Structure formats: C-alpha cells, structure tokens
Automatic annotation (TrEMBL):
Compartments, as annotated in UniProt: Cytoplasm
Family according to the record: Belongs to the class-III pyridoxal-phosphate-dependent aminotransferase family. ArgD subfamily.
Organism: Pseudomonas xantholysinigenes
Annotated protein name in UniProt: Acetylornithine aminotransferase
Cofactor note: Binds 1 pyridoxal phosphate per subunit.
Subunit-structure text: Homodimer.
UniProt cross-references to CDD domains, sorted A to Z: OAT_like
Matching NCBIfam families: arg_catab_astC, argD, PRK01278.1, PRK03244.1, PRK05093.1, PRK12381.1
Cellular component per GO, a single term: cytoplasm
Known EC number: 2.6.1.11
Length: 406
C-alpha cells in the first residue's frame, strides 16, 4: 500500500535546505534518455547531464538492470571484507588504462583527496618530509574538501574557512615556462585537468602536458591528472590522457563513472600504490557493491569502439550548429572543447551573462550549463540521439533569438 506523500515545491528548498545552492525554479521529477519532465509535465531536453555525470542519460536500461539486480543481492559489507562488483570494476579499469591498482570512493573530491595524500606519502617515504609541495593551476577545480579546495586555484571557493593547507602553489594553465620556473626538488606532485572544466572548458595543449610529464620526471615529482570531468568517454577516448598520449602517475575519475550513481576512483601503479599500506587511508562506502555494479555497466556500454566513435561524431554535430548560432547572433567568439564537453565562449557584448542564457534556454525547454560567467557549457549524455541534439539545439537557437532581440 502506498502512503500519500505531501506535495513538494521549490519554496520548500528555502525552508529546509542549507542555502549554499540556488536551484532553478522548476523541479525535474522523471527522466528518460536525454529528456526530462518537471512537476507540471513539461518536457525538457537535457544537455547538462547532471554536470557531466549522466553519461548514458536518464534510466538507461543497462544501468537500471545492473542496479536492480545488485539491489536484490548485496548492498554493503564495508572494507573489512571485499565484494565481487568492486573487484570486477577494478579489473575493468586496470585492463583499460595504464593503471595497475584502483582505490574506490564516493566522489571526485574524495578521489583527488586520495591522490594528493598518496603523492605526499610517496614523497615522504622516498625523500623525506621536505618534499611535500603540490603545484596546481590557476582557475583549476579539484573538489570542496579543505585539501582539494586549497589545491584548486579559485580563491573564491577556498577563502573564509580558516588557515589553508600549506605547500600548495598555483601557476597559469597551459604555460609550460611558468611550471618550469615553479617546480623544484621539493615538489611532490603537479596536478592538471587535461581540460579545465569549471573555469571555462579550456583544453590543454599537447606539448604542455608532454612538457609537464618531462618536468615531473626530472624532479621526481608525480604527475596527477584530474579526470573527474573528462573521464569515462567524455572526450571520445575512455580517458583524456589517451586522447593526448601523455600518461600520468595517478588519475582520478568520478562523475560519468557511475552514470548518476555516486562513485569515485583513484587509479595508479603498483609501485606507487604500495605506499598506501593497510590503515593509511580509508572510506566507509568506497567500493560499495551498488555503485561498482552500476559503474561496471557504464564501462561496458561506453568503452566500445562504436560508442567512442559516436561521441566524436556528435561533437561535430554540436559544434557546427553552435558555431552557426553563435555567429548569427553575435553571441560566441569560440566553440571549444573535446568530445561531448563543449564550451561556447561569450562575445564581449555578452560577457558575464552565461546565467541569463541558461535561464532563457530553460524557458524554451533545454537544459544547459555555464562554466564561469563567460562560457556556456554542454555536457550531454554520451549516447544522446541525433534527433535530440537537433531538437535541443533548435530550442537553444529560439532561446538565443529571444534574448538577442529582447
């Protein structure tokens, strides 16, 4: 027998939630593929993908099946034991990447926290406590824990929470000379997003990543790639490091890995992994059977030649149409990004107005994102239908038309 539930409204958010978010006025209640329906039954096309999370859209049959089967089998046992889905997932990731070892957690921030702790522990064990400095990039984003937000290069997110973790410095992104000037024998790690996501969808230059790899080798520092947003097919390669042909020592993954179910992973080599011996790091939920079963299903769908080739083709479909819309409206100066992580850079006349465009798009029935105030970001399902791309961009074009004439 079903219990009658009280109606829920957007106004409830302001009554019962901590006000650190400012969500949209409508409440999505159901999704299927790349379509979402709100409380009034209005249908929207989803090009936001839960911020690059819903890699296979909403309620993908393979994920629903994996989750349902696992939900009827085993939910949680803790890391005092192990479980089959976690070991299956670890095998899949090890087989598909440079890595030999996996550590599972629940989010991108936790994956980065583990990566930074591992880098410091390796340097501590091999060279002593002096070698602990981490170099990150200006405008980077690595999570919201105190450690990860301190490594992230955006003071607006890290200021006002007391003393910051020390031994962290920031250099401009894509600037090899700046990195060369900063790195030293005290550096334990250099942390880079192969494509800066939050700060504007800025892809790294290949020679920048190659140069960073070489500098790390020269200074006995570890190269960490934060692939929380770029990982699991987003770029048309399973991981962006494969797209660039530059291999890190440690890679972090989350977002798309669970297709909407919370999971994060840190991937590394056996040689480095041994420094996190028993008792040095842990997590209650990490490697949870439900999350790992879903992630296995995500990888089975995404890591195929057909899906990865499809992502590259869909990129072209988006880019061609977005460039045309941007030129005709005088809205974008550039459409950049790789695969299905796309950023449209606003022209001078529209600088600072990404939120307005996002709101106008929603009114026309299409969900998009921003990446900072000057970039409109698209991170749709990796298997979004061409018909949904065309219809969603038609709606987006209508929204832009109304804004520019308004």
């Amino acid at each position: 027998m079903s219990v009658e539930q009280a109606p829920v409204q957007r106004a409830d958010f302001d009554q019962v939630m901590v006000p650190n978010y400012s969500p949209a006025a409508f409440i999505p209640v159901r999704g299927e593929g790349s379509r979402v329906w709100d409380q009034t039954g209005r249908e929207l096309i989803d090009f936001a993908g839960g911020i690059a999370v819903n890699a296979l859209g909403h309620c993908h049959p393979a994920l629903v099946k994996a989750l349902t089967e696992q939900a009827n089998t085993l939910w949680h046992v803790s890391n005092v034991f192990t479980n089959e889905p976690a070991l299956r997932l670890a095998h899949k990731l090890v087989d598909a990447t440079f890595a030999e070892r996996a550590f599972f957690c629940n989010s991108g921030a936790e994956a980065n926290e583990a990566a930074f702790k591992l880098a410091r522990r390796v340097a501590h064990d091999r060279f002593g406590p002096e070698k602990h400095e981490i170099i990150a990039t200006v405008n980077s984003f690595h999570g919201r824990t105190l450690f990860t937000v301190s490594v992230g290069g955006q003071p607006k997110y890290s200021d006002g929470f007391g003393p910051k973790i020390t031994g962290i410095s920031h250099v401009p992104y894509n600037d090899l000379e700046a990195l060369k000037a900063q790195i030293s024998d005290k550096t334990c790690a250099v942390v880079i997003e192969p494509i800066q996501g939050e700060s504007g969808v800025v892809p790294a230059d290949k020679d920048y990543l190659e140069g960073a790899r070489k500098l790390c080798d020269e200074h006995n520092a570890l190269l960490i790639f934060d692939e929380v947003q770029t990982g699991v097919g987003r770029t048309g390669s399973l991981y962006a490091y494969q797209h660039y042909g530059v291999t890190p020592d440690i890679l972090t993954s989350a977002k798309s890995l669970g297709g909407g179910f919370p999971i994060g992973a840190m991937l590394t080599t056996s040689e480095l992994a041994k420094h996190l011996a028993v008792g040095t790091h842990g997590t209650t939920y990490g490697g949870n059977p439900l999350a790992c079963a879903v992630a296995c299903a995500v990888l089975d769908v995404v890591n195929t030649p057909q899906t990865l080739a499809g992502i590259k083709a869909k990129h072209e479909r988006f880019k061609t149409r977005l460039e045309k819309i941007g030129q005709e409206a005088g809205l974008f100066t550039q459409v950049r990004g790789v695969g299905l992580l796309i950023g449209c850079v606003l022209s001078d006349a529209w600088k600072g107005k990404a939120k307005d465009i996002l709101n106008a798009a929603e009114k026309e029935g299409v969900m998009v994102l921003q990446a900072g105030p000057d970039v409109v970001r698209f991170a749709p399902s990796l298997v979004v239908e061409d018909a949904d791309i065309d219809e969603g961009l038609a709606r987006f074009e209508r929204a832009v038309g109304k804004l520019t004439q308004g």
